[in-house]
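Example record

One chain of 418 residues, shown exactly as stored in the release files.
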Amino acid sequence: MATLLLDHLRSVFTTQAVDELARATGEQATLTQKALDGLLPALTTGVINQAQTREGAATLYRLLTSTPFATDPSVGQLVDADSHRQQAVKSGTALLGQLFPDRPDRLASSTAEYSGVSLGSATTLTGLAMSILMGFLHQQLITHKLTEAQLAAQLRSETDPVRSAIPAALAGMLGWLIGPPAPRPVNPAFPPSGITQAHREEDNEQAAGFPWLRWLLIGAGLLLLLFLLMRSCKGDKTETTTESQPRQESTTSVASDTLASDLDGNAPDVRVAVDLPGGRKLSLVKKSFTYSLAQFLATKGGQVPKVFTFDNLTFETDSARITAQARPNVDDLIQIMKAYPSLHIRIEGNTDSTGDDAINDPLSGDRADAVRQALLAGGIEASRVTTRERGDSKPLASNQTAAGRQKNRRIDVVITKL
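Predicted structure tokens for this chain:
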């Protein structure tokens, strides 16, 4: 399940940003990454938990509406520039102290203990992440004109997926911040101790008033037991018959199939191990863009130009910033292009017909360029990747339906040269 807040934080703290922070704090990049992997979901959960009570939601709303946050261009520089970073750390630390006045330093100390970075480095990371998180919340509040109640509802909707992203070792240290786990459902067969004897007697009296109901339930239970016994006997017979036959080896070769996590509520995706030239291996979802592309390239004599829709690429709302959830798909494309060094592509940005063309068209171009820049950052030569802004000029479906508009908002990758 996608999480707006956590995905935004992860998109800011890219691999390049982590390397820069490690250099600035004098830490190892691996330890800095470990600290952020635990800190980002823990901090986000702590802020979300403020919305669980009316008093906490009011405090959070007041901070978001009264604090002068950096404008969006400055946010992009918070990680890279020393002056911006130092100011952001100071601001974020102050905000953390106002939200958690009793334990303002506990998150940083726990992060340091968990990851192995120094307390000073953990304090810097905590303040910086808090500043970016609160600045993004402020932006959402202003852009969407959220009331206090709407903000609280939005935050509470992300509780479970964000909390589940916290490493178990760190979560054990931060019970005060992230709150207790969600209560388990009560098993009707074992009622809670709070049920009084009076309630039990009342239930017994009601059952006594309907003796036929009790006998009906007993009869249904006996029929169910008989059905299960007959099914079990049949299963034993079938198993015995099967075992008596000689085993045969399967002639179907499946390349390391695995099931992707079912995070969006749909059926799990089947992943297949794909071998690329040069010894590279990828685990790709069947029928995905990258899988179809790899299959096409592996087949000799493919005709170009050939268009593929980058169906598992997502961007932040009204933005050209690739979501953290979609980054692995871009990384797979990088690996495929490295395995086929003669491959040239054109990235085309498309939108639906809603909204102003003066906004949509440039946005489609910006998103195409964002993918190109990600490929270049991954080591792909600039001459191998071009872009095109298409706006709503090339729809795949009708713009009259929500499903059609969703199909039209896409990135196409055109194979121009093999």
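Notes: The chain has two domains: 4-178, 258-417.
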